Amino acid sequence: MILGQISYLDCLVFLIVLAPQLLLHVNIFELVICVLKALPFVLLQLPYQLCRERYFTSKHQKSPFVQQASLFQDLVIRIVRYAFAFIPANIGRVFFSKGVALPFLRFRLLRHGYFQAPLTWREAVLRRNFSSKAKTVGLWVTVEEGERPDLVIYYCHGGGFSMGSSYFYLEFLMAWLTLLRDAGYRNPAIFALEYTLVPDERYPTQLEQTVAGYDHVCSIVKDPSRICLAGDSAGATLQLSLLLHLSKSSSPAKQRPGFATLISPWATLVTPKNRDTPSDYLNADSLHLYGRQFAGTQANLKDPLVSPGVCKDRDWWVRASPSGGFCFMYGSEEVFGPEVRDLIALLRRSGCAVRVREEPGQVHAWPVVSLFLADTQGERTKGLRDLTKIITQVIDPQIVQIDGL
Questions:
Q1: d(CA 211, CA 205)
Q2: What's the average model confidence in pLDDT over 84-98?
């Protein structure tokens, strides 16, 4: 199930769905102040900068992203860039919440002629096995729910640990599941972790939940080699932390997943190498704030299980590597670019199998962004098709399991 590009009508419906959720979850005075602060940007700065760079700047002086972006893509990325830098996380998290994302997805399905989604999803509440009061919840997206999957993508969403939800990514995940089925897997499935956001909980809760989610997936699949870890941004960070954690167990080889596909991982939480770029919508100062809030203490920022990019121990990475290695997919213009390249170089020097897709001129988490904003279906699904092709090369779709759940 692959829906069409986000339209201006979709944007209007999104705002209509968003408004009551903001009123329900955000202090009205804080909301009014946020809106008033945004008015100069919306009314003056946005149209001026958009017109100046798109229509009155020579091509070689435009940012790499603007050089290839449509007007709609350019407009949306500029708005997101402002929001990430200036809208507080407690307001921003409402944009990605279940209460907004799920009604919006249902409208998108209806607009494309689906009265019911062709793929199923259900929440799973996992057994709590750690000290935090937070429960561990995940979202199963399946083709045939009653049969054991022959491949599971274990996904952790992004959002700076402070925003995001699996429901916001549900359309992306269903499109990916469709491509995996078309690639030859008999019954692929995706388990998306709904980890607790900061500041409701801090490290180590999110890592403990990620471990609990992996244990749950292993209990369903039975064979870890049929599991592909995946995630974007902060979610990819949690997956790297999970791998480092698993490698410290008494029998790491038996627990290792088959593969890991990481989209724009936030490798090192706080580092001067995370710098703003003219193209990307991320803001380094906001990221460092979120990273410190997640870590809780300055000392934790030096812990590889918190900030995996600080781990320079090659032997540790060798033990942590999935049996089929890693795939990194990121944009050449994103804030995390330098740290991602450093981590890739370290893994390769360590002898780990690493596949890389650095997309020229693209921004953070571009496979997700492109699915919603790109013009043609080929452009919209390019990242997902590349990921799917790579996964089939590592985890054979012809090896199937016939047991029931």
A1: 10
A2: 95
